[in-house]
Amino acid sequence: MLSPTAFENPCPTMTEVNASSEAPRLEPIDRPDSWWMRLVYWITKRTLGRVITPVKVVNARVPGSASVAQKMNATEKQLSIDPELRFLIKSYVATLNGCSFCIDIAQASAQDQGISIEKYDALLQYETSDVFSPRERAALVYVEEATRSTSVTDATFDALRTHFDDRAIAELTWLNAMENYYNLLNRPLNIGSDKLCAIRSDIEATPARHAA
Fold first, then answer.
1. Exposure winner among 46, 48, 126, 189, fewest CB in 10 A?
2. Does residue 15 have a pLDDT over 60?
């Protein structure tokens, strides 16, 4: 794996997805009423560098959804699927659904974990690009088909089985469903990128600027 500082372009821009500068359709809540949401705001800012827009737009109005997100994030960390493949799946599904917020937070998370994100710009050509392994292609075909039609053909599933065991297939299916869940929260409400990846890049670049 590469460290975040090894990336020449740490925030790739394959396509300007959902690049609208329009505000979210619901007003972000900057000062939540409950102690629970104030805690969520504090943790989010400490972890990500800012209180992300979905928290201020959705979680603040549906406080229980913050617990759901917390549990899903914890579950993802326990998956046996390698982090780079998880990044590719989440990024590709978010791209299919036009969720720029989700693409950005996936890139920021990858930077935090030291995951190479160099394949991101080639995702739209994954079926023909030689930077992807047959295993990665099989996973991407599976999640694309499931995302587009909510089902997959026997041929797609059989191809997946040649690379993944039953546990990994269940994990891939869950990860795809989780990403679609987040995409469907953000897109209808016009929640775009929070520039989290750029924040990470600025943090990484600051020591170098001071050293110079």
1. 46
2. no
Question: What's the pTM?
Answer: 0.86
Exposed (0-12), middle (13-18) or buried (19+): which is 64, by Cβ within 10 Å?
exposed
Q: Any idea where the domains of the chain sit in the sequence?
A: 28-78, 81-212
b/e code 144-171 from CB counts within 10 Å (16+ = b): bbbbeeeebeeebeebbeebbeeebbeb
**pLDDT at residue 8 above 60?**
no
CA distance 167 to 154: 18
Which CATH number, 3.40.440.10, 3.40.50.280, 1.20.1290.10, 3.90.420.10, labels domain 81-212?
Answer: 1.20.1290.10
Structure tokens at 117: 């994100």
Q: Which of 103, 104, 107, 133 is nearest to 118 (CA)?
A: 107
Structure confidence by residue, pLDDT tens digits, 75-114:
999 999 999 999 999 999 999 999 999 999 999 999 888 8
Q: What is the pLDDT of residue 117?
A: 82
Burial of 20 (0-12, 13-18, 19+ CB in 10 A): exposed
Q: From 212, 209, 194, 211, select the one nearest 56 (Cα to Cα).
A: 194
